[in-house]
Amino acid sequence: MAADLVHPRKARPGDRIAVVAPSFVAPGAFPAVHEQALRRLSEVTGLVPVEYPSTRRLGASARARAEDLNTAFADPAVRAILAVVGGEDQITVVPHLDPALARLDPKPFLGTSDNTNLHQWLWTNGIASFYGGSTQVHLGPGPAVDDIHARSLRAALLTGERLEITDPGESEDVGVDWADPRALTQYGEREPTQPWSWHGPARSVTGRTWGGCLEVLEWVLTAGRFPFPPEVLQGGILLLETSEELLPARNVAWIVRALGERGLLAAVDAVLVARPPVSDRTRRPPAPERARLRDEQRDRVVEQVQRYNPEAVICVGVPFGHTRPQWILPHGGRMTVDATARRIHADYR
Fold first, then answer.
1. How open is the CA angle 342-207-275, to the nearest 5 degrees?
2. Nearest-CA neighbor of 28 among 8, 57, 71, 67?
3. What is the Cα–Cα distance from 92 to 168, expressed in whole angstroms?
4. Which pLDDT tens digit goes with each residue over 139-166?
5. Cis link prior to 325 (omega < 30° from 0)?
6. CB 208 within 8 A of CB 183
7. 4 confidence band (pLDDT: 50, 70, 90)
8. Are 326 and 320 in contact (CB under 8 A)?
9. Could you give the 3-state DSSP secondary structure of residue 301?
10. Please, which pLDDT band fits residue 3 given cuts at 50, 70 and 90?
């Protein structure tokens, strides 16, 4: 693989963490969830959250949202950056970012979904990050912060330890509507998870991770914002997850096929596929149909990966991305996917 990316130094309790809205400005529409999230962020990490002009400003321009990120990277007192949530237009924010600021003082960046744009921008500028985390989905709602989220949040921001990625035993596709006061005290409709599905050879793979939200990866590659040959991922681990847009399995497979045609599937040694959402607040199929939809996506994705790389280790159902409880995972850091022992570990250095 290519030379290691820079791994930003960890924050320490009492340091400042920037809380930014590079995509949807959810705190402007749902401030109660946001404010509870800030309190919990401080309680779980000991860090001091700092907001910016666009953090709560609905309708903030792409340039204004980028300026908040530039300011956070430029401020030596800020030692980490956390996105409030994803969205769908961060691709328009990226051109306004100043790479010199990020390279001069690299900081851990955490975000999921549309923040795949920022993860790829950081990778392009030689900086590792952490895929996952949001104030609006994983910190603010519900009666408490999920244990696996809190553990990986602290590891990514503070401790840099090595953790085993485990299944929490339950999952929700979508929480209570943020406009509903019950969002502050209740989880969404959770259901038991199914065992992870393992495919490919029974071997152990340790490598650097790359990936994110599949739909956003398609945009990033279309815009030419991952300007590397496939060999940069050689021996690595591909992270793939799908969003609340609930793409049909065939559409998901088409995007994975395109990754194969690009040469990316053949380059990696392992692929981790997240447990996908199959319902939202307006569509919740019966439990057997939800299971069928997840199985169909699994089968289509595995088929495409094995078409381009029959030697890849594949694990489907890992709780990251658009699910809760959620593990935050290294992006550009190292993970071990052991198909013999059927265990996964992540290094949060």
1. 50
2. 57
3. 36
4. 999 999 999 999 999 999 999 999 999 9
5. yes
6. no
7. confident
8. yes
9. helix
10. low
